[in-house]
Amino acid sequence: MNTSLRHHLIASVIGLATAALSPALLAQTTAPVKAVASFSILGDLVRQVGGDRVAVDVLVGPGSDAHVFQPTPSQARLVGQAQIVFSNGLGFEGWMSRLLNTASYKGRHVVASRGVKPIHAEGEHDHKATGGHHHEENDPHAWQSVPNVMAYVGNIAKGLCEADAAGCNTYQKNAVAYNAELKALDTDIRATWAVIPATQRKVITSHDAFGYYAHAYGVKFLAPQGVNTDSEASAKGVAQLVRQIKQEQIKALFVESISDPRLIAQIGRETGVKPAGELFSDSLSDAQGPATTYVAMMRANTTALTQAIQGH
Ligand code: ZN
């Protein structure tokens, strides 16, 4: 073998070795992007888009209520060390801006619901000083409509691309694949409801968390508590709801995993309607439950709702 041929061969082998080191292997040796998501459902969405390149910590875990959350000092430290923070927005995390200040956080903050059309909820608040008043506020539970979450996925991918340009291709690929899964989920939910007459699609839940689901899938939800959980349901409101359940013969009565079940139990006693089980509104379930991911949560809720209405 002459010298130039040997050099050529060696160069080829080095070339192959370099090619083999390309993105997949390099990605494994890079430390993952440190991300913090405000609550469990959003944490799952960030994991779906981020894949192996992103390590996600969640502030409000499964079974907890983000409306009334109080961050601990160790959670403030976690935020301080993050490279990117995700929140829902629409007034869901009233504690977020103070937490970012406390943590002296200077990194990216992605509001996942950006661009989603908000639904306005009429809130009733019993302010003792003003004698009570009505006012309009945004319903923050936009994730209860699958098309909205497809917009969340776009915002998450964009944020991750800005925080980690080297992973941008991966994030975009993951987002496209996940959005295809969400499209199929949306189609399935519509098909499941399609067999139930519109007049029968009435449900009682603990707090008013299903406005977007109602709007997207043509279901009427009634709740003793408003879009926030920080104020008590009024006795007058509960009495009204009891009358309505009797008049309209509503059969689907649900508690939510994050809510105190006593109020729904009381409504059950007063109407003679047996609570049909648990819905997941603002939180995923723990690992043993039926709602460990967003997709599983939407499927579990839809199955529980349609079966209760059909009397299963
Ligand atoms: Zn809520």
Question: Can you walk me through this structure?
Answer:
By secondary structure, the chain is α/β, with parallel strands linked by helices. The protein folds into two domains: 157 residues, Rossmann fold (3-Layer(aba) Sandwich); 117 residues, Rossmann fold (3-Layer(aba) Sandwich). The protein contains eleven helices and ten strands. The strands form three sheets. Strands 2-1-3-4 form a four-stranded parallel sheet, with helices on both faces. About 6% of the residues have low confidence. Bound molecules: zinc ion. Zinc ion binds next to loops.
Outline of this structure?
The protein is of the alpha/beta class and 312 residues long. It has helices spanning 3-20, 23-29, 40-50, 73-80, 96-102, 146-163, 168-194, 211-217, 235-248, 262-271, 294-309; strands spanning 33-39, 54-60, 84-87, 108-111, 119-125, 133-139, 202-204, 220-222, 252-256, 277-279. The protein has a four-stranded parallel beta sheet, with helices on both faces.
| Rg from Cα | 24 Å
CATH architecture of the largest domain: 3-Layer(aba) Sandwich
Oligomer: single chain
CATH topology of the largest domain, what is it called? Rossmann fold
Strand order of the largest sheet: 2-1-3-4
Ligand roster? zinc ion
The helix fraction, in percent, is: 40-55%
Mean pLDDT, as a whole number? Answer: 88
pLDDT under 50 segments (min length 5)? 13-20, 123-133
Secondary-structure element pattern, one letter each: HHEHEHEHEEEHHEHEHEHEH
User: What distance separates the N and C termini?
Assistant: 80 Å
Give the class-level CATH name of the largest domain.
Alpha Beta
Number of discrete helical segments: 11
Strand content: 15-25%
> Could you say how many structural domains there are in total?
2
Give the full name of the CATH homologous superfamily of the largest domain: Nitrogenase molybdenum iron protein domain
Q: Care to count the β-strands? A: 10
